[in-house]
């Protein structure tokens, strides 16, 4: 019983694998369960595994833009989590790369799933970036997608493709529109939203951090545990219950950057708050300010999705407990 996670060597992929190993099983949309599945983390070569995964999963080098290699990697899969992506800031700076990975890579994964001859469940991740700044809040799944950047555009196209694969019965494809995930461990990445973790992670570790947006900017946020719970829940929802269009908005928390900094001070003290410098970056603001921050997630909640934490302070306590 093989489970493939593309982008599996990333933070969320490894966290997802750790959770599935702890549970010992994974429920699928048709009601069957993968018991102690063999987990393959398919990603770029050279990634470092968390100690708790050493010897318990298989690492496989994979470039999802290579259709043949992707088909080979999925040949024995009973289920797929498709997390491989080029993040927002990089996708805006490198248009061709972002489109190749975020759209063409998704197409290759879906085609590989279909080539197995089995209706494989494929859980993909999208983003609130598929919506534009003109959307009326709170947003629902019926809100039109009008992305204002290249990352959101590629993700919106990938959502449509996954939904069409599901409609045609070529894969049990489902998409989760994730909020901005905080707090991500490690170094900052090329995502425009990377600062949302940096303004917590670095100050709590005694290091300075730069905030490139105005403190009044609201964000739609969720913890890593909420994201992982959402992926596992998405795999388990019965086929008859998933909405006709494959994309679903995941529960999260709305908070302004100022409120995030207040939570930082509450947990880490004034010393931690003082390590954050407000230094606006027009390029980052141009991307992030176009993202909505308030969602009606009743559809997801009715399907059993939930938030792991209810406040930013809760998220910070959970982060500190895990570090």
What do these coordinates show?
By secondary structure, the protein is α/β, with parallel strands linked by helices. Helix content is 40%, strand content 19%. The protein has eleven helices and 14 strands. A seven-stranded parallel sheet has the order 5-4-1-6-7-8-12, with helices on both faces. It is globular, with a radius of gyration of 19 Å. It starts with a strand and ends with a helix.
Structural class: alpha/beta
Q: Average pLDDT across residues? A: 95
Distance between the termini: 32 Å
Query: What proportion strand?
Result: 15-25%
Query: How many β-strands, per DSSP?
Result: 14
The whole-angstrom Rg is 19 Å
Largest sheet at a glance?
A: 7 strands, parallel
Query: Strands across the major sheet, in which order?
Result: 5-4-1-6-7-8-12
Number of helices: 11
Detail the poorly predicted runs: none
Helix content: 25-40%
Query: Per the principal axes of the C-alpha atoms, what is the gross shape?
Result: globular
Give the SSE order as H and E letters: EHEEEEHEHHEHEEHEEHEEHEHHH
Give a short synopsis of this structure.
The protein is α/β, with parallel strands linked by helices and 323 residues long.
Give the SSE map:
Blueprint: E1 2-6, H1 11-23, E2 25-27, E3 33-35, E4 38-43, E5 58-61, H2 67-73, E6 77-82, H3 88-93, H4 95-115, E7 121-127, H5 150-167, E8 172-178, E9 180-181, H6 195-204, E10 209-211, E11 218-222, H7 224-236, E12 247-249, E13 253-256, H8 257-274, E14 276-278, H9 282-288, H10 298-302, H11 312-322
Parallel strand pairs: 1-4, 1-6, 4-5, 6-7, 7-8, 8-12, 9-11, 10-14
Antiparallel strand pairs: 2-3, 11-13
């Amino acid at each position: 019983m093989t489970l493939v996670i593309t982008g599996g060597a990333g933070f969320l992929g490894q966290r997802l694998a750790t959770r599935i190993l702890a549970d010992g099983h994974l429920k699928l949309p048709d009601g069957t369960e993968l018991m102690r599945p063999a987990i393959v983390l398919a990603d770029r070569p050279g990634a470092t595994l968390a100690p708790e995964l050493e010897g318990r999963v298989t690492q496989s080098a994979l470039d999802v833009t290579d259709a043949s290699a992707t088909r080979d990697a999925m040949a024995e899969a009973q289920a797929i989590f498709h997390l491989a992506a080029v993040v927002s800031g990089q996708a805006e700076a490198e248009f061709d790369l972002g489109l190749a990975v975020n759209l063409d890579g998704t197409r290759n994964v879906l085609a590989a799933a279909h080539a197995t001859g089995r209706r494989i469940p494929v859980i993909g991740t999208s983003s609130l970036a598929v919506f534009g700044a003109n959307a009326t809040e709170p947003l629902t799944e019926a809100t039109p997608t009008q992305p204002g950047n290249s990352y959101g555009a590629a993700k919106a196209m990938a959502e449509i493709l996954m939904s069409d694969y599901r409609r045609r019965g070529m894969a049990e494809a489902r998409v989760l529109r994730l909020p901005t995930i905080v707090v991500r461990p490690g170094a900052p990445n090329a995502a425009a939203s990377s600062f949302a973790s940096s303004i917590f992670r670095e100050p709590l570790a005694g290091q300075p951090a730069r905030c490139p947006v105005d403190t009044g900017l609201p964000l739609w946020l969720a913890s890593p545990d909420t994201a992982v719970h959402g992926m596992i829940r998405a795999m388990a929802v019965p086929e008859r219950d998933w909405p006709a269009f494959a994309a679903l908005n995941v529960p999260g928390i709305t908070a302004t950057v100022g409120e995030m900094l207040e939570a930082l001070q509450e947990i880490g003290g004034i010393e931690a708050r003082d390590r954050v410098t407000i230094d606006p970056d027009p390029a980052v603001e141009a991307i992030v300010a176009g993202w909505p921050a308030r969602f009606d997630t009743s559809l997801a909640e009715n399907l059993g999705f939930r938030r792991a934490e209810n406040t930013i302070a809760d998220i910070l306590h959970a982060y500190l407990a895990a570090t």
